[in-house]
Amino acid sequence: xxxxxxxxxxxxxxxxxxxxxxxxxxxxxxxxxxxxxxxxxxxxxxxxxxxxxxxxxxxxxxxxxxxxxxxxxxxxxxxxxxxxxxxxxxxxxxxxxxxxxxxxxxxxxxxxxxxxxxxxxxxxxxxxxxxxxxxxxxxxxxxxxxxxxxxxxxxxxxxxxxxxxxxxxxxxxxxxxxxxxxxxxxxxxxxxxxxxxxxxxxxxxxxxxxxxxxxxxxxxxxxxxxxxxxxxxxxxxxxxxxxxxxxxxxxxxxxxxxxxxxxxxxxxxxxxxxxxxxxxxxxxxxxxxxxxxxxxxxxxxxxxx
Length: 305
Description:
Layout: H1 6-18, H2 21-28, H3 32-46, E1 51-54, E2 57-60, H4 62-90, E3 94-100, H5 102-109, H6 113-119, E4 123-129, E5 143-146, E6 155-169, H7 171-177, E7 191-194, H8 207-210, E8 218-220, H9 223-231, E9 236-240, H10 241-249, E10 254-256, E11 262-271, H11 278-294, H12 296-299
Parallel strand pairs: 3-4, 3-5, 7-8, 7-9
Antiparallel strand pairs: 1-2, 5-11, 6-9, 6-10, 6-11
Helix pairs in contact: 1-2, 1-3, 1-4, 2-3
């Protein structure tokens, strides 16, 4: 039987996550024939077929499914050992990836990165601000910001802050369609909201919280583009107040029915395997400190009483 090789296990995880041999090979920086040999070698060493080779991609067999948890556990151990060695030898260096919702990453964290870079000039930061959940166990991020607290997995979560959302429209839209004075009028207007099957968190279902009769006619997959559509006069939308603030000051947006106030929370999440990694702990603390420094007025509309 062929001797087990850790590189083959890394190859296995790459194919599992990419789904296609060519994509995984490109991500690993090797040619697809080399990757194919590594997968075949792993199967030979284990005496099991791990993938069904199909024209549409590689599909896991039952044996392949069973291997994932052990492979990820070995990967986590290797990453943790390597990170501890880097921290001990070099201080706060290397790369850290932060996965966030697009609004939080764009409007809050991105402006803070200059300070983080000044404090730790050898640190490389990757900010992934996308409308999605990030898997820390699959190494999609070292730190994740989420709208919900995780209910399972070896994860640590701390609540960062609560924030407020309100109903907004552009002044141009209101000039064309008339001012809105009460909740009963909302059903008669065009709404901008999420593509339902692309809602990556149940917390994004704002409209049903206002009224079960509200449905968006214009559906957009992310909140930044939704705000652009609302500013452009496409319709009414529910927006985080910390996003809408600048447009509101520039008279591009008008908040409607301020007694309707929705609240959500942001959570900072790290993996249990990262508990000894200095750069993860330092950056997580930096984020929490910056949220605290901004104060509640950044997240809650203090002009509404």
